[in-house]
Every structure is written in C-alpha cells, then in structure tokens.
Amino acid sequence: MRACNVKAEHVSHAIFMAGGGQQRGVVANKDLAEGETIVEIPRDSALCLFRGDKAPAPDLAAFWAAHPQWYVRLGIKLLVERDKGPASAVSGYIDILPKPDECGQFPVEWSDAEIAQLRYEKVESSIARQRDKWKEIQGDFRRLCPQRTAWSD
Residue 78's pLDDT is what? Predict the structure, then answer.
C-alpha cells in the first residue's frame, strides 16, 4: 500500500476468530490517541464515485446507464481495476479482499434450509429480495456486456 502513498503505520490487517470462523479486520499496533489520524488515503488511491461519472470502459456504458445504484457502479469500477492487476492504483486493496469462496458467510449465499432456520420472516424476505435483485443485475450484465461474462460467473 505504500506504493500508493497510503499511510497506515499504526494498524495492520488481521484475521480474528469469531462466531466459529475467521473474520477479517484491522488491529492497532500501538495505543492510539483520541483524534489521532489512523489511515490517510490519497483520492487517486481510492475507488470513488462522482455524480455524472461515465462508465469506466465503452463496452460497459449500457449496463452503467441501466444501473445507477452506487453499489453496482462501485463494483464495476472494482472489477475494472482488478483486471489491471498490479498496474491498478488500488491493487493493494484488491489483494486483501476476500475471494469468492470466502463469502459463504453472507446470508444471500446460504441455502434455503439455512435461511428457514432463522424463523424470522422479515429477514427471510429481505434475503429473498436481495437474491432476486442480484440475479436481475447479473442477468442484465450478461445481456448488456456479453464480452465480459467471466465477471458474472
């Protein structure tokens, strides 16, 4: 992260044991004073969204226009940066993100039987709506960006 001028001298990435599994997080390497700056990230070393941003690549323009949601657009920017590999200004950040096989702890990835064990209808319906929305977004992506279908597999 130093190559991108990110300053975080007093914290480190860590893996914590919690809830019967591993959780990613950050740990302080020293006592931190109230008001002390912990992390500084230059804007050109961060993924940012701005009103009026254009699609990050011409072949993504139709999908970008169809999905103005911040989380969809940030995801697209992240995937474009991931494809750049070490040349990306945010490659250090991308390198520490969880891999797809490490995301099974998210409720939308649970089986229907696991979700039913919650026995809480509001949460169950919320998970169902999120699954449906993600399927819709994925379908639109495959339709509008067929040359990048590897991203949606």
Answer: 94
